[in-house]
Each structure stands twice: as structure tokens, then as C-alpha cells.
Amino acid sequence: MSNSEQQISQCFATHMEHIAQAASSTTTSIDKAADALVNTLLTDGKILTCANGNANILAQYFCTALLNRYDHDRPALPAINLGADATTYSAICRDNRFNDTFSRQVRAIGKPSDLLLVIVDDGHKANLIQAIQVAHDREMTVVVLSAKEKTDITSLLHPEDHEIALDNLSPSAASPILLLIINALCSLIDDKIFGS
Fold first, then answer.
1. For residues 100 and 96, what is the distance between their CA atoms, to the nearest angstrom?
2. 118 three-class SS
3. Which residue of 45, 117, 123, 192 has the lowest C-beta tally within 10 Å?
4. Exposed/middle/buried for residue 126 (C-beta within 10 Å: 0-12, 13-18, 19+)
5. Contact in structure between 107 and 138 (CB atoms under 8 Å)
6. CA–CA gap between residue 92 and residue 106 (Å, rounded)
7. How far apart are CA 163 and CA 33, in angstroms?
8. pLDDT digits (tens, 9 = 90+) for 18-64
9. Which residues of 22-48 are buried (b: 16+ CB within 10 A; e: fewer)?
């Protein structure tokens, strides 16, 4: 086996270890978060998502699965990715308010019946922290999907909030597992609202 082939095999082996670890540690958290998402949708609320960098791809994927479909045709479900509107995002940043990129939007469109889903893979979090604080000001529930345990975001969460935290993974190692968790959430949402 060549060095490249060994490296590839090691990548797969490490990924499988991370998946097994996540499966054993996050199942209950995923189910509780799914219940919170479903409750929001059943009470005419909407789901707002936010994330930085590559995690924003996951936020958009989640919203697309709700707005369009996951595995089966069904009515559209209300979800908005606050990082998808490049014009609004860049306008807020242009005015030297990067930390306000999501919180300004949550303050403008968030309501008590809504839920904020925050996806954190690593890196800059100040704008995510401010979004959570504003969501709480607006009496919204918060669900955090994080690549790391016990972050400064964890300390902001209220008892009615939910966190699904991985075991301190790098962003590149966390991304495929975060996608798997998002797929599980989408599947649970469909099943709990529309049945099998």
C-alpha cells in the first residue's frame, strides 16, 4: 500500500471513529432538538439559521431541506438562513458591524414563536453570540449545533435551549458529522410532522 493509500485509509478510519463517537454521545440531544424544531413549526413559528464560514453551507442545506423537501414531497416549512443574503450581510459588514451581521436580522424578523439554529464549527463567534443574545431578548428558543463541547456559547443557553455538541473536533473533521446530524434532524422533523 502506498503512502497516499495509507493516508486515505486513515482518513476513513478516523471519520468512522468520529461518527461512532457522535452516535453514542448525541442521540438524546438530537431527539430533543428535533422536538424543539417541530414545536416551533407546529406553532406557526419559523426557523432562522446562522453560521460562519463553511458552516454556513450546512445552514443553507438545512433551510433548503425544509423549504423544498428532504426525502419526500411535502408542504414547505418556514426556514431562513440569515447568512444567505450576501447583500444584507455585506452591507452590515461594510458599516464595520461584523458582530451585528446576524443579530440585526434576528431583531428585525425574529418573534417569540421562532427558533434560532446556530451552527458553530470553529473560529469567530462574536456575531453568533450576539445573535443568541438577541434571540433570547426576542423570547426565541435557541438550538446550537457545535463542533466543540463547553464553549463560551454553551454558557449563554437557557434551560429551554438545546445544544448538540461534538467532542472537540476540527472544522474539517466536524463538517461531515454536522451534516449527518442535520440529516437526522430533517428526517425526524418530517417523521414527527408528516409521519413515515
1. 9
2. strand
3. 123
4. middle
5. yes
6. 13
7. 8
8. 999 999 999 999 999 999 999 999 999 999 999 998 999 999 999 99
9. beeebeebbeebbebbbebbeeebbbb
d(CA 92, CA 107): 14
pLDDT at 89 over 90: no
Contact indicator for 157, 129 with CB cutoff of 8 Å:
no
Alpha-carbon span 74 to 49, nearest angstrom: 21
- Residue appearing with cell numbers 431541506: 65
User: Which of the residue ranges 5-14, 102-111, 137-146 would you say has the lowest mean pLDDT?
Assistant: 5-14
Which H or E run includes 128?
helix 126-137
Q: Which amino acid is residue 196, in one-letter code?
A: S
Average pLDDT for residues 176-189, to the nearest whole number?
A: 97
| Beta strands 141-146 and 79-81, pairing class | unpaired
Per DSSP, the three-state class of 48 is strand
